[in-house]
Design brief:
By secondary structure, the protein is mainly alpha-helical. It is built from five helices and two strands; from the N terminus they run H-H-H-H-E-E-H. It is 63% helix and 7% strand. It is flat. It has a two-stranded antiparallel sheet.
Length: 134
């Protein structure tokens, strides 16, 4: 059995080239994401701070804490800090809200405008009494 050393050398160089390319890609990957890496690092740092505050509250608060209640409160605080119209609903409150707001419509079903002067009917809304009367 004869070993072809030229093919072995070629395979070795190909393998080393692929390995070098892979290593270079891993080295340059953070540069490709640039600011995004910095932003995510900052976000994880802030989440670490949250974890520390959560841990301190759990272990040093005067009475036993409810972990779920604390996390729900933190999420609610985060959402409400975005703007006056953002808020968080826990799963039960969200389900209750869905029941209250889905599937019922009251009124005749008109799109109206009251820009200047009298109110004007723009169009009926599909599948409403106004659309059926049209």
């Amino acid at each position: 059995m004869r070993i072809d050393t030229d093919k072995m050398k070629q395979g070795l160089w190909t393998g080393l080239g692929a390995l070098a390319g892979f290593a270079a890609g891993l080295t340059l990957l953070p540069l490709a994401y640039g600011a995004a890496d910095s932003d995510i690092t900052t976000a994880y740092h802030e989440l670490d701070r949250f974890g520390e505050a959560f841990s301190v509250a759990r272990t040093h608060y005067a009475v036993a804490t409810d972990d779920k209640l604390m996390v729900e409160g933190a999420i609610n605080g985060m959402m409400s800090s975005l703007d006056p119209h953002s808020s968080y609903f826990d799963p039960k409150t969200f389900a209750d809200m869905q029941v209250k707001t889905e599937g019922q419509y009251g009124g005749v079903g008109l799109v109206i405008s009251a820009e200047a002067g009298p109110i004007k009917v723009i169009s009926p809304i599909d599948d409403t009494p106004a659309a059926k009367a049209n």
